[in-house]
Write a sequence for this structure.
């Protein structure tokens, strides 16, 4: 799957508010994830195609480009993490957070360039994002990170806003009143709503399949691939993928290192 083919998919606030859970299926990103999206439109892709409105990426105050300065980059990145976490009250796994930022990057919404992500045992991964979560400098105390349980091989741990973080979030969204910022928030809320519907195992499988160049050979990859039929069947049963996508994931051979 070419990254250029999966680049347009982060809907607006209307979608985040009214979209049925089956809207963002088989595709962890979505195709044409806008107000008029049909439930079957957003399936089978982990990146997102046409999931946004017409927000100008360069005008958004959460552009993590930071004009080349590491301090600006981390400040903007921490603020972006705050907005993603604040978009939903539920805790989120580090894995899903990484995938959300990757989708935002694909669309150019966050200003997070493709070079910031690299191959990893958990698929597309950003060390800068992990560092912002684990070692915040500007928004200390805004969120709490919990290490994964001993039997949790997929999540990478979980993050949730603290009471202080919720105050920071509310202040941030009320301060950012320009249209570009509102559009940015709409897109974030849509993607966060979409990704809340996926298990970590399901997300890993979709990621490995859609972006094989970002996967690394590992026991985790082999484990997920070995369970692909079971994982895909759960996604199909929940309406997250259609039958065609199920066959691609559960029946077709797509192991990157297949003998």
């Amino acid at each position: 799957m070419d990254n250029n083919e999966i680049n347009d998919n982060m809907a607006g606030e209307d979608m985040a508010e009214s979209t049925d859970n089956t809207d963002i299926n088989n595709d962890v990103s979505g195709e044409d994830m806008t107000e008029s999206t049909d439930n079957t439109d957003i399936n089978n892709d982990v990146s997102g195609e046409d999931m946004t409105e017409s927000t100008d990426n360069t005008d958004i105050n959460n552009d993590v480009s930071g004009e080349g300065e590491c301090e600006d980059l981390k400040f903007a990145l921490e603020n972006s993490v705050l907005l993603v976490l604040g978009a939903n009250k539920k805790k989120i796994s580090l894995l899903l957070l990484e995938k959300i930022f990757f989708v935002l990057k694909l669309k150019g919404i966050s200003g997070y360039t493709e070079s910031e992500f690299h191959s990893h045992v958990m698929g597309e991964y950003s060390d800068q994002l992990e560092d912002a979560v684990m070692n915040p400098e500007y928004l200390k105390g805004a969120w709490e990170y919990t290490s994964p349980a001993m039997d949790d091989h997929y999540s990478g741990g979980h993050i949730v806003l603290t009471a202080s973080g919720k105050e920071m979030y509310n202040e941030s969204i009320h301060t950012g009143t320009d249209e570009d910022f509102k559009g940015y928030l709409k897109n974030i809320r849509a993607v966060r709503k979409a990704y809340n519907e996926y298990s970590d195992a399901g997300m890993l499988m979709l990621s490995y399949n859609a972006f094989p160049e970002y996967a690394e050979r590992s026991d985790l990859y082999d484990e997920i691939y070995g369970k692909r039929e079971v994982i895909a069947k759960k996604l199909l049963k929940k309406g997250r993928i259609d039958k065609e996508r199920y066959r691609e994931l559960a029946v077709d051979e797509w192991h990157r290192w297949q003998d």
Remarks:
- The first strand starts at residue 92 and ends at 93.
- The beta strands are 92-93, 143-146, 158-161.
- Confidence is low (pLDDT under 50) at residues 1-44, 47-68.
- Residues 3-195 form one domain.
